[in-house]
Amino acid sequence: MYTETEGSRKAIGDVDVLYHDGLYHLFHLVLPNHDFIAHAVSTDAINWRRVNNALFIGDPGSWDDLMLWTMAVSPNPHQPGQWRMFYTGLSRREQGNIQRIGLAVSEDLYHWHKAPVNWRDERGPNDPPAVLRAREIARQQPTSCRHAVFDAESDFPLEAPQEFYESSLNEGRHWISFRDPFYYHEGDRGWLLMAARTKEGPVVRRGCVGVMEETAPGKFAARPCLHHPGLYDDIEVPNLIRIENEYYLIGSLREDAKIRYWHTNQIRQPWRSYYDNVLLAQGNYAARVCRDDRGWLLWNFYSLDDSNRTSRNLMPPPKRLYRTEEGMLRATTFEGLNKWLGERIDTRCVHPLGRGHGRQTCSIDGNNLELACETGFQAYVFDGSIESAKMSAKIDLCGLGKCGLVFRVDPETQDGYYLSLDLLKGMAQLRAWHTGQPASGEKMMQFRTLQGGNWYSDTPGQAEISLVAFGHYLELSVDGRVVLTLADSTFTEGLFGVYLESARMRLYDVDLRKMRGPEQSAHHLVTG
């Protein structure tokens, strides 16, 4: 996992990842200042090392002299061996109320230069001569990752085309959405996608995926929006990929802080939704895709503070994307986590967490268990306190009672994570349940719902589950699909097991493996 230094006022923001020559390159925003785009590298997509920052806000008077927002890095289709970074910039000229898209280029992914722009510094034409002279001297520096030279023929920075999108501060939200670029190339054509807004309809329902077509190297023509669902204020951080003969459009929505997708079999044909088009559950945001030597990966950032996505953010491990037989897009556990698997726990050593009530049974046959709790609640846990682990099993719930998982549970207080599984309706809810300060009255009972998710099953009452608790990162997969994915630091170690409430269940092929925790400390950026 990747984050900024613990205790710092800074936090990781939107991310973009590119895989090249066996190395993952991460480019990301740094909040709250948005004054540079950071660059980190990794060989395993888990441990990262920061290298020199890629890009900085422009010099005063530049089109991007206030903030830098989301970026996207891709090979230059017109010049092999060169890379392009499309990025969002804000200018002090409009107090950041108009978003534009710029371009930087690199020959090696490490050294970036901003492309020429058709933008003039219009500040202070009546400044005293000495001040005008000082400004001129300051401008006499070589092109760098801060400064873009003037070129009257340049299309950059790109602005929202007025014929198709909100482009004036006098319309819509009085704040121009034209950000989060993503470049898609197929055959001899290329399109630049972005978060934009149509000109008509209810003001907070105009969010769309805008598009401009690259008609010549660095030249872009306005096109009607690629997709307008008619529901959302913005579709942030759009992505477009093709798997087999189907196109998938992925976006993040502020309305519910989820990552969703749409599909079509041909660009410029209507985009359709499946009954379940959620890729990642609530709290995961600003997803980006990259392709490595095994297929597509999905990346995003997650905030430990769900009320404020500008602090305490981290980038969890990626998810592997796959297409189902029905054509639906799904996320599955990143196979790279298997490298952290260690000692196998003997799952024949299982015992009740507490006394319980009523009839209880526990039958063990190798890695198969049959458990029952006819009335009340009982958890059955395996021996030994564990920090990080992966637990998998096939569950067969008998009857109409309740069941779920427990992990990092304290044997005395029974504080820990409680994960309810409704195997009939296909619902999961993760909660942190613990004891507050002594003598604090009602506040002693601390109960937080962390995340919920859904799935569909052809066999209600049965499921194959996999739980990963890897440092702060927590993930649940059901029948191979990631249903919950989040980060939480409430509990760091404890007992692992399952629970029943007026239920009986059979567990098959139970496998509990310790994991080595993430090797990098919270201070890895500075200490190594």
Give the gist of this structure:
With 528 residues, the protein is mostly beta strands. It is 3% helix and 52% strand.
Return the average pLDDT rounded to an integer.
92
Would you count the extended β strands for me? 35
Taken as a percent bin, the fraction of beta residues is over 45%
Give the N-to-C terminal Cα separation: 14 Å
Helix content: under 10%
Large-scale geometry: elongated
Rounded to an integer in angstroms, the radius of gyration calculated over CA atoms is 26 Å
Low-confidence stretches: none
- Major sheet details: 13 strands, antiparallel
Tell me the number of helical segments per DSSP (H or I, 4 or more residues long): 2
Structural class: mainly beta
Structural overview:
This protein has helices spanning 129-139, 524-527, and strands at residues 2-3, 11-20, 23-31, 36-42, 49-56, 67-75, 83-90, 99-106, 112-114, 179-186, 189-197, 207-216, 219-227, 236-243, 246-253, 258-264, 278-280, 284-292, 295-303, 313-315, 319-323, 329-333, 341-345, 350-352, 357-365, 368-382, 389-398, 402-409, 416-422, 427-435, 445-454, 462-470, 473-478, 481-487, 495-515. By secondary structure, it is an all-beta fold. Strands 23, 24, 25, 26, 27, 28, 29, 30, 31, 32, 33, 34 and 35 form a 13-stranded antiparallel beta sheet that branches. Strands 1, 18, 19, 20, 21 and 22 form a 6-stranded antiparallel beta sheet that branches. Strands 2-3-4-5 form a 4-stranded antiparallel beta sheet, with no helix packed on it. A hairpin with a 2-residue loop joins strand 33 (473-478) and strand 34. The chain starts with a strand and ends with a helix. The model has no long low-confidence stretch (mean pLDDT 92).
